[in-house]
Design a protein that fits this description.
Elements: E1 4-7, E2 14-15, H1 17-29, H2 38-44, H3 49-60, H4 68-82, E3 88-89, H5 93-102, E4 106-114, H6 115-126, E5 133-137, H7 148-157, E6 164-168, H8 171-179, E7 183-187, H9 194-199, E8 204-206
Parallel strand pairs: 1-4, 1-6, 4-5, 6-7, 7-8
Antiparallel strand pairs: 2-3
Helix pairs in contact: 1-4, 2-3, 3-4
Length: about 220
């Protein structure tokens, strides 16, 4: 039996695309770009806030990223104040987390979202102290698909890669989990599709959160 599950946050635990769009559209409007659709934001996100802004600027026509520094700073400011805008857990996630705790399986989060906002979202949605470990983007820790964040979690929990499941909704997540030696599960309720998860190296795909329990 596996001893822990490491979760991606956006598109896996939380349906947060409305917050990304709200903050991104507000920031980019200051430079004459947008608004963009939620579907576009599903492909802007996943590799950190800086890459979200870069992709949105390029989609708006600023292919040279002339406004990047200003737009990124404004996005961060807006996002700090609005990271919980219309954010909610996906259906079945609370029941999955409860089921894992009932089985004494530890739960952790690894997100490319800035660390302070990652903690804010998790503690607002699930309560302080509910997760065994929370890791967002911090200086000096490479973002996913680097497996370094997973290794940091493994060290904290005293586990090895083959003792965990890694659940995420993008190819970036699948590469992250595989790089750490974990069994990777692709969440089909998230931001990306079956083809991306399969091509990204998912060991298995799940259509509903409670199916994760079958892989313990």
């Amino acid at each position: 039996m596996r001893k822990a599950v490491v979760f991606d946050l956006d598109g896996t635990l939380s349906d947060s695309i409305a917050s990304m769009k709200y903050c991104g559209d507000r920031a980019l409007a200051a430079f004459g770009y947008g608004p963009f659709t939620e579907q576009q934001y599903k492909y802007f996100v996943g590799d950190g806030a800086a890459n979200l802004v870069r992709r949105a600027l390029a989609a708006g026509g600023d292919t040279e990223l002339a406004h990047f520094q200003e737009a990124f700073a404004l996005y961060r400011e807006i996002f700090r104040e609005n990271c919980m805008y219309k954010v909610r857990p996906y259906e079945g996630i609370p029941e999955l987390l409860s089921g894992l705790k009932d089985r004494n399986v530890k739960i952790a989060v690894l997100s490319n979202k800035p660390h302070a906002e990652t903690v804010n979202v998790i503690e607002t949605l699930f309560g302080k102290g509910y997760f065994d470990y929370i890791q967002g983007q911090i200086e000096g820790l490479p973002i996913k698909p680097s497996p370094q964040g997973v290794f940091r979690i493994l060290d904290a929990l005293g586990l090895a890669g083959d003792e965990i499941l890694y659940l995420g909704d993008t190819a970036t997540d699948m590469k992250t989990g595989k790089g750490a030696g974990a069994f990777t599960l692709g969440a089909l309720w998230g931001f990306r599709d079956r083809a991306e998860l399969t091509e990204g190296g998912a060991d298995a795909l799940v259509e509903h959160p409670l199916q994760v329990l079958d892989f313990l």
